[in-house]
């Protein structure tokens, strides 16, 4: 999933059908990462207050 190996040949060949995923994906990942960093770095609350369950793994479980 190297975007450079996908974007270059797609642009040269003129195939723009699904190219938006390779342009939007990294931007969305960067914004989400910056938001998560700011949430953890600049908050005065302990992790237990940010994550009400006290455990990320416990909160990530799918409830059936």
UniProtKB/TrEMBL annotation:
It holds the Pfam family MIP. It is found in: Membrane. The keyword rRNA-binding does not apply. One of its GO terms (molecular function) is channel activity. Its main location: membrane. The chain crosses the membrane at residues 20-40. It is a multi-pass membrane protein. This is Uncharacterized protein. GO terms for cellular component: membrane. Keywords: Membrane, Repeat, Transmembrane, Transmembrane helix. InterPro entries: Aquaporin-like, Aquaporin_transptr, MIP. The keyword Membrane applies. It comes from the Eukaryota. The lineage of its organism: Eukaryota, Viridiplantae, Streptophyta, Embryophyta, Tracheophyta.
């Amino acid at each position: 999933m190297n975007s450079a190996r996908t974007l270059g040949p797609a642009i040269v060949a003129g195939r723009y059908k699904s190219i938006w995923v390779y342009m939007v994906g990294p931007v969305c990942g960067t914004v989400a990462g910056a938001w998560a960093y700011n949430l953890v770095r600049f908050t005065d609350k302990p992790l237990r207050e940010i994550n009400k369950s006290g455990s990320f793994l416990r909160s990530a479980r799918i409830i059936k």
